Amino acid sequence: MIPVAFDYQRATTVDEAIAALSGDSKILAGGHSLLPAMKLRLSQPAKLVDITRIAALKGIKEENGEIVIGAGTTHGDIAKDDLIKTKLPFFADGASMIGDVQVRNHGTIGGSLAHADPAADWTALVLAADAAIEVQSSSGKRIIKATDFFTGLFSTALEDGEIITAIRIAVPAAGTKTSYQKFVQPASRFAIVGCAVMRAPDGKTNIAFTGVSDNPFRDAGAEAAVSGKTLDNATISAATNAAAAGVSIMSDHYASEPYRRHLAKVYLKKALQAVS
Ligand SMILES: Cc1cc2nc3c(=O)[nH]c(=O)nc-3n(C[C@H](O)[C@H](O)[C@H](O)COP(=O)(O)OP(=O)(O)OC[C@H]3O[C@@H](n4cnc5c(N)ncnc54)[C@H](O)[C@@H]3O)c2cc1C
Protein backbone atom coordinates (compact mmCIF):
# COMPACT_ATOMS: atom_id res chain seq x y z
CA MET A 1 0.00 0.00 0.00
CA ILE A 2 0.94 3.63 -0.35
CA PRO A 3 1.18 5.93 2.71
CA VAL A 4 -0.93 9.08 2.94
CA ALA A 5 0.89 12.25 1.83
CA PHE A 6 3.31 13.72 4.35
CA ASP A 7 5.86 16.52 4.65
CA TYR A 8 9.52 15.67 5.07
CA GLN A 9 12.33 17.54 6.81
CA ARG A 10 15.90 16.35 7.21
CA ALA A 11 17.56 17.57 10.42
CA THR A 12 21.31 17.86 10.81
CA THR A 13 21.40 18.50 14.57
CA VAL A 14 19.36 17.26 17.52
CA ASP A 15 18.19 20.83 18.27
CA GLU A 16 17.00 21.20 14.67
CA ALA A 17 15.11 17.91 14.92
CA ILE A 18 13.47 18.93 18.19
CA ALA A 19 12.45 22.29 16.72
CA ALA A 20 10.97 20.52 13.68
CA LEU A 21 8.78 18.19 15.77
CA SER A 22 5.20 19.34 16.09
CA GLY A 23 1.94 17.66 17.08
CA ASP A 24 1.45 15.34 14.14
CA SER A 25 5.06 14.68 13.15
CA LYS A 26 7.20 11.56 13.62
CA ILE A 27 10.90 10.95 13.78
CA LEU A 28 12.29 8.86 10.93
CA ALA A 29 15.35 6.78 11.90
CA GLY A 30 15.98 3.48 10.07
CA GLY A 31 12.38 3.42 8.85
CA HIS A 32 12.13 -0.34 9.23
CA SER A 33 9.22 -0.17 11.66
CA LEU A 34 7.74 3.22 10.81
CA LEU A 35 7.54 2.85 7.01
CA PRO A 36 5.75 -0.54 7.08
CA ALA A 37 3.24 0.97 9.54
CA MET A 38 2.75 3.99 7.27
CA LYS A 39 2.28 1.78 4.21
CA LEU A 40 -0.44 -0.10 6.08
CA ARG A 41 -1.83 3.32 7.15
CA LEU A 42 -1.59 2.24 10.77
CA SER A 43 0.53 5.38 11.20
CA GLN A 44 -0.34 8.58 9.31
CA PRO A 45 2.08 11.32 10.38
CA ALA A 46 1.68 14.72 8.73
CA LYS A 47 5.46 15.18 8.72
CA LEU A 48 8.59 13.05 9.00
CA VAL A 49 11.66 14.50 10.68
CA ASP A 50 14.62 12.54 9.34
CA ILE A 51 17.38 12.11 11.94
CA THR A 52 19.54 9.69 9.96
CA ARG A 53 22.19 12.34 9.10
CA ILE A 54 22.68 13.61 12.66
CA ALA A 55 26.28 12.65 13.40
CA ALA A 56 25.88 13.29 17.16
CA LEU A 57 23.38 10.43 17.38
CA LYS A 58 25.77 7.84 15.97
CA GLY A 59 28.61 5.87 17.48
CA ILE A 60 29.69 4.02 20.60
CA LYS A 61 32.14 5.24 23.23
CA GLU A 62 33.24 4.66 26.80
CA GLU A 63 32.82 7.79 28.93
CA ASN A 64 33.00 8.29 32.70
CA GLY A 65 32.46 4.63 33.52
CA GLU A 66 29.62 4.20 31.03
CA ILE A 67 29.26 2.69 27.60
CA VAL A 68 27.31 5.24 25.57
CA ILE A 69 25.54 4.11 22.40
CA GLY A 70 24.13 6.86 20.18
CA ALA A 71 20.44 6.31 19.51
CA GLY A 72 21.04 6.48 15.75
CA THR A 73 23.62 3.69 15.79
CA THR A 74 22.50 0.80 13.60
CA HIS A 75 22.10 -2.77 14.80
CA GLY A 76 24.86 -3.73 12.33
CA ASP A 77 27.35 -1.21 13.73
CA ILE A 78 26.66 -2.39 17.28
CA ALA A 79 27.14 -6.03 16.27
CA LYS A 80 30.58 -5.21 14.83
CA ASP A 81 31.85 -2.87 17.54
CA ASP A 82 34.94 -4.00 19.48
CA LEU A 83 34.02 -2.21 22.73
CA ILE A 84 30.59 -3.86 22.68
CA LYS A 85 32.04 -7.26 21.80
CA THR A 86 34.45 -7.00 24.75
CA LYS A 87 32.31 -5.40 27.44
CA LEU A 88 28.70 -6.17 26.47
CA PRO A 89 28.99 -9.25 24.28
CA PHE A 90 25.28 -10.06 24.52
CA PHE A 91 24.52 -6.70 22.84
CA ALA A 92 26.72 -7.76 19.90
CA ASP A 93 25.08 -11.20 19.77
CA GLY A 94 21.56 -9.76 20.06
CA ALA A 95 22.22 -7.13 17.38
CA SER A 96 23.60 -9.73 15.00
CA MET A 97 20.41 -11.79 15.38
CA ILE A 98 18.06 -8.95 14.34
CA GLY A 99 16.25 -9.42 11.04
CA ASP A 100 18.45 -9.60 7.97
CA VAL A 101 21.40 -7.57 6.65
CA GLN A 102 19.18 -4.77 5.28
CA VAL A 103 17.35 -4.38 8.58
CA ARG A 104 20.62 -4.41 10.54
CA ASN A 105 22.21 -1.85 8.22
CA HIS A 106 19.41 0.69 8.60
CA GLY A 107 17.49 -0.10 11.79
CA THR A 108 18.68 1.74 14.91
CA ILE A 109 18.72 0.94 18.60
CA GLY A 110 16.87 4.19 19.36
CA GLY A 111 14.17 3.43 16.80
CA SER A 112 13.71 -0.06 18.15
CA LEU A 113 13.37 1.15 21.75
CA ALA A 114 10.95 3.95 20.80
CA HIS A 115 8.82 1.54 18.77
CA ALA A 116 8.70 -0.97 21.68
CA ASP A 117 7.56 -3.92 19.62
CA PRO A 118 6.69 -6.73 22.08
CA ALA A 119 8.95 -9.09 20.09
CA ALA A 120 11.94 -6.73 19.72
CA ASP A 121 15.38 -7.81 20.89
CA TRP A 122 16.79 -4.55 22.32
CA THR A 123 14.06 -4.28 24.92
CA ALA A 124 15.23 -7.37 26.85
CA LEU A 125 18.90 -6.47 26.36
CA VAL A 126 18.64 -2.94 27.79
CA LEU A 127 16.55 -4.23 30.72
CA ALA A 128 19.09 -6.92 31.60
CA ALA A 129 21.95 -4.42 31.28
CA ASP A 130 20.20 -1.96 33.64
CA ALA A 131 20.59 0.65 30.92
CA ALA A 132 19.47 4.25 31.09
CA ILE A 133 17.73 5.88 28.13
CA GLU A 134 18.82 9.49 27.56
CA VAL A 135 16.17 11.66 25.93
CA GLN A 136 16.10 15.30 24.86
CA SER A 137 13.37 17.82 24.14
CA SER A 138 13.01 21.60 24.07
CA SER A 139 12.95 21.42 27.91
CA GLY A 140 16.41 19.80 28.04
CA LYS A 141 17.67 16.29 28.72
CA ARG A 142 16.37 13.62 31.06
CA ILE A 143 17.34 10.06 31.85
CA ILE A 144 14.77 7.26 32.00
CA LYS A 145 15.78 3.94 33.54
CA ALA A 146 15.13 1.06 31.16
CA THR A 147 13.01 -0.54 33.88
CA ASP A 148 10.69 2.52 33.74
CA PHE A 149 10.78 2.99 29.96
CA PHE A 150 8.45 0.29 28.60
CA THR A 151 4.88 0.99 29.64
CA GLY A 152 2.88 -1.46 27.52
CA LEU A 153 2.27 -2.76 24.01
CA PHE A 154 4.16 -0.41 21.64
CA SER A 155 4.18 2.13 24.48
CA THR A 156 6.98 3.90 26.27
CA ALA A 157 7.59 6.69 28.76
CA LEU A 158 8.64 9.01 25.91
CA GLU A 159 6.68 12.25 25.86
CA ASP A 160 5.68 14.32 22.83
CA GLY A 161 8.64 16.20 21.42
CA GLU A 162 11.25 13.91 23.02
CA ILE A 163 14.02 12.24 21.04
CA ILE A 164 16.08 9.36 22.38
CA THR A 165 19.66 10.55 22.08
CA ALA A 166 21.67 7.74 23.72
CA ILE A 167 21.61 4.51 25.67
CA ARG A 168 23.93 4.50 28.69
CA ILE A 169 25.16 1.36 30.45
CA ALA A 170 27.52 1.26 33.43
CA VAL A 171 30.66 -0.58 32.33
CA PRO A 172 30.18 -4.11 33.71
CA ALA A 173 32.67 -5.30 36.35
CA ALA A 174 35.48 -7.50 35.03
CA GLY A 175 34.29 -11.09 35.00
CA THR A 176 30.64 -10.23 34.25
CA LYS A 177 29.05 -12.81 31.98
CA THR A 178 26.19 -12.18 29.58
CA SER A 179 24.01 -14.19 27.25
CA TYR A 180 21.10 -13.53 24.89
CA GLN A 181 19.12 -16.52 23.63
CA LYS A 182 16.10 -16.36 21.37
CA PHE A 183 13.61 -18.58 19.64
CA VAL A 184 13.19 -16.80 16.32
CA GLN A 185 10.22 -16.24 14.13
CA PRO A 186 11.65 -17.94 11.04
CA ALA A 187 10.62 -15.28 8.49
CA SER A 188 11.25 -11.97 10.30
CA ARG A 189 13.74 -13.20 12.94
CA PHE A 190 11.77 -11.31 15.63
CA ALA A 191 11.83 -13.02 19.04
CA ILE A 192 8.97 -15.38 19.72
CA VAL A 193 10.78 -15.64 23.05
CA GLY A 194 14.06 -13.90 23.90
CA CYS A 195 15.92 -14.09 27.20
CA ALA A 196 18.80 -11.79 28.19
CA VAL A 197 20.97 -12.53 31.23
CA MET A 198 23.75 -10.48 32.82
CA ARG A 199 25.56 -12.09 35.76
CA ALA A 200 28.06 -10.10 37.82
CA PRO A 201 31.09 -11.75 39.45
CA ASP A 202 29.33 -11.58 42.86
CA GLY A 203 26.48 -13.64 41.41
CA LYS A 204 23.95 -10.79 41.10
CA THR A 205 21.93 -11.81 38.06
CA ASN A 206 19.64 -9.70 35.89
CA ILE A 207 17.14 -11.62 33.77
CA ALA A 208 14.85 -10.05 31.16
CA PHE A 209 12.40 -11.44 28.64
CA THR A 210 10.98 -10.18 25.36
CA GLY A 211 8.30 -11.81 23.22
CA VAL A 212 6.66 -13.46 26.21
CA SER A 213 4.25 -10.74 27.26
CA ASP A 214 2.95 -7.57 25.61
CA ASN A 215 5.59 -5.71 27.60
CA PRO A 216 9.25 -6.76 28.04
CA PHE A 217 10.04 -7.42 31.69
CA ARG A 218 12.70 -8.17 34.28
CA ASP A 219 11.89 -11.49 35.94
CA ALA A 220 12.25 -10.85 39.67
CA GLY A 221 11.30 -14.42 40.64
CA ALA A 222 13.89 -16.05 38.39
CA GLU A 223 16.52 -13.47 39.44
CA ALA A 224 15.93 -14.26 43.13
CA ALA A 225 16.31 -17.98 42.44
CA VAL A 226 19.84 -17.58 41.05
CA SER A 227 21.33 -14.34 42.41
CA GLY A 228 24.37 -14.97 44.59
CA LYS A 229 24.07 -18.75 44.17
CA THR A 230 26.23 -21.26 42.32
CA LEU A 231 24.64 -21.95 38.96
CA ASP A 232 24.28 -25.71 39.34
CA ASN A 233 21.46 -27.80 37.90
CA ALA A 234 19.26 -27.42 41.00
CA THR A 235 19.57 -23.61 40.99
CA ILE A 236 18.90 -23.36 37.27
CA SER A 237 15.90 -25.62 37.70
CA ALA A 238 14.57 -23.40 40.50
CA ALA A 239 14.91 -20.39 38.20
CA THR A 240 13.15 -22.04 35.27
CA ASN A 241 10.33 -23.12 37.60
CA ALA A 242 9.94 -19.49 38.65
CA ALA A 243 10.20 -18.05 35.12
CA ALA A 244 7.42 -15.67 34.09
CA ALA A 245 5.35 -16.54 37.17
CA GLY A 246 2.33 -14.26 37.40
CA VAL A 247 3.00 -12.75 33.97
CA SER A 248 0.21 -12.49 31.43
CA ILE A 249 1.62 -14.46 28.47
CA MET A 250 0.90 -13.57 24.83
CA SER A 251 -0.79 -16.06 22.55
CA ASP A 252 -0.85 -15.79 18.76
CA HIS A 253 -0.63 -17.93 15.64
CA TYR A 254 3.12 -18.40 16.17
CA ALA A 255 2.96 -19.71 19.73
CA SER A 256 0.15 -20.42 22.17
CA GLU A 257 0.28 -19.21 25.78
CA PRO A 258 1.40 -22.62 27.20
CA TYR A 259 4.02 -23.05 24.46
CA ARG A 260 5.44 -19.55 25.08
CA ARG A 261 5.58 -20.24 28.83
CA HIS A 262 7.47 -23.46 28.06
CA LEU A 263 9.83 -21.59 25.70
CA ALA A 264 10.53 -18.99 28.38
CA LYS A 265 11.80 -21.76 30.66
CA VAL A 266 13.85 -23.40 27.90
CA TYR A 267 15.50 -20.15 26.80
CA LEU A 268 16.17 -19.04 30.37
CA LYS A 269 17.89 -22.39 30.96
CA LYS A 270 20.03 -21.92 27.84
CA ALA A 271 21.01 -18.39 28.92
CA LEU A 272 21.84 -19.43 32.50
CA GLN A 273 23.91 -22.37 31.27
CA ALA A 274 25.80 -19.97 28.99
CA VAL A 275 26.79 -17.71 31.93
CA SER A 276 27.55 -20.52 34.42
C1 LIG B 1 11.83 -7.63 7.87
C2 LIG B 1 12.09 -7.07 9.23
C3 LIG B 1 12.63 -7.90 10.20
C4 LIG B 1 12.89 -7.41 11.49
N1 LIG B 1 13.40 -8.27 12.43
C5 LIG B 1 13.63 -7.81 13.67
C6 LIG B 1 14.18 -8.68 14.68
O1 LIG B 1 14.52 -9.84 14.45
N2 LIG B 1 14.34 -8.15 15.92
C7 LIG B 1 14.03 -6.84 16.23
O2 LIG B 1 14.20 -6.43 17.37
N3 LIG B 1 13.54 -6.01 15.29
C8 LIG B 1 13.33 -6.45 14.03
N4 LIG B 1 12.83 -5.58 13.08
C9 LIG B 1 12.58 -4.18 13.44
C10 LIG B 1 13.85 -3.37 13.19
O3 LIG B 1 14.81 -3.68 14.17
C11 LIG B 1 13.60 -1.85 13.22
O4 LIG B 1 14.76 -1.29 12.67
C12 LIG B 1 13.38 -1.23 14.55
O5 LIG B 1 12.32 -1.79 15.24
C13 LIG B 1 13.01 0.25 14.41
O6 LIG B 1 14.18 1.00 14.25
P1 LIG B 1 14.29 2.06 13.11
O7 LIG B 1 15.58 2.77 13.32
O8 LIG B 1 14.07 1.40 11.81
O9 LIG B 1 13.11 3.08 13.48
P2 LIG B 1 11.95 3.73 12.59
O10 LIG B 1 11.19 2.68 11.89
O11 LIG B 1 12.48 4.86 11.78
O12 LIG B 1 11.06 4.35 13.78
C14 LIG B 1 10.31 3.52 14.64
C15 LIG B 1 9.56 4.40 15.64
O13 LIG B 1 10.48 4.98 16.56
C16 LIG B 1 10.45 6.41 16.49
N5 LIG B 1 11.85 6.82 16.62
C17 LIG B 1 12.89 6.43 15.85
N6 LIG B 1 14.05 6.91 16.35
C18 LIG B 1 13.72 7.62 17.47
C19 LIG B 1 14.48 8.34 18.43
N7 LIG B 1 15.83 8.44 18.36
N8 LIG B 1 13.83 8.94 19.45
C20 LIG B 1 12.48 8.84 19.56
N9 LIG B 1 11.70 8.17 18.67
C21 LIG B 1 12.33 7.56 17.64
C22 LIG B 1 9.82 6.73 15.14
O14 LIG B 1 9.20 7.99 15.12
C23 LIG B 1 8.84 5.58 15.00
O15 LIG B 1 7.68 5.85 15.76
C24 LIG B 1 12.58 -6.05 11.80
C25 LIG B 1 12.04 -5.20 10.81
C26 LIG B 1 11.80 -5.70 9.55
C27 LIG B 1 11.23 -4.78 8.50
UniProtKB/TrEMBL annotation:
FAD-binding PCMH-type domain ranges (all copies): 1-174
Keywords: FAD, Flavoprotein, Oxidoreductase
One Gene Ontology molecular-function label: FAD binding
PROSITE patterns assigned: FAD_PCMH
PANTHER family from the UniProt entry: XANTHINE DEHYDROGENASE SUBUNIT C-RELATED
Name of the molecule in the record: Xanthine dehydrogenase family protein subunit M
